[in-house]
Amino acid sequence: MRISDKWIDYELIDTADGERLERWGDVTLIRPDPQIIWKNEGEAPEWVSAHARYIRSSSGGGSWDYCRKLPESWQINYGSLRFMVKPTGFKHTGLFPEQAGNWAYCGDIIRAAGRPVNVLNLFAYTGGATLACAAAGASVCHCDAVKGMVDWARTNAKLSGLDDKPIRWIVDDANKFIRREIRRGTRYDGVILDPPSYGRGTNGEMWKLEDSIYGLMEDITALLSDKPLFVLLNSYTTGLSASVMSYLLQMTVGKRFPIEVLSEEIGLPVKQTGLPLPCGSTAVVKFL
């Protein structure tokens, strides 16, 4: 398992009874996590002093129960990167801390390349991977279908002192944008994909990961430069396990290039137990 354990401003304090207890800077939040099917006899004391708890509704969705006063938003650091976080209506905070290990991985490859590197970050959300690649020296195309997320990412770039870096900010449906890039002859040395299980494009196009990912990866393969550095695919969908993603990448990217795929779970260390909490899977293409 690839564990993101270099955080200072974020901490997964404890997990129990379908919930995770997390510290985001000076703010402590409780959020649901359905895979947490265990109880914890030695519960951390922070459970009773959390600032807010996200309560799921029986009819779908949910809302935050604020136990203590919270700012509308606040900021946390990861190394030289700085992010705005805030509770949203869908339990999220604008950041997936388990992805930090992947940010470091991509940054290391870019710095070691010794040449200009062009990276595409698809389903790019609030820009964690975008900022890590830009900070490492890459030109980055940041694409997400939700304008609010792209605006949030631009805020994070400014907070991180990276707003002058060569980043293209694109609000578009991923599939449509990729096909236009293919027609334009644009090519990328690295591609990062963090697709949702379900979603909608800018014009309401329905996205279901299992139905769409193979065609997407075929198009991504066509977008790669002659000497690519990496392709990184993330999944939070149970049916798209690390092994399934590895097979998928061999059947798409592997048909054009000699590759090796490293696939594994990603996770976060739990302070209370010392055990890593699985938080999804990642598959990385290494070009031989």
List the helices and strands and how they pair.
Elements: E1 2-3, E2 10-16, E3 19-24, E4 27-32, E5 52-56, E6 62-66, E7 74-78, E8 81-85, H1 100-113, E9 118-122, H2 128-135, E10 139-144, H3 147-159, E11 167-171, H4 174-184, E12 190-193, E13 198-200, E14 206-208, H5 209-223, E15 230-235, H6 242-252, E16 259-269, E17 276-287
Parallel strand pairs: 1-16, 4-5, 9-10, 9-12, 10-11, 12-15
Antiparallel strand pairs: 2-3, 3-4, 5-6, 7-8, 13-14, 15-17, 16-17
Helix pairs in contact: 1-2, 4-5
Structure, explained:
It is a single chain. With 288 residues, this protein is an alpha/beta fold. Helix content is 25%, strand content 33%. The strands form 4 sheets. It has an 8-stranded mixed sheet, with helices on both faces. Strand 13 and strand 14 form a beta hairpin. The longest helix has 15 residues.
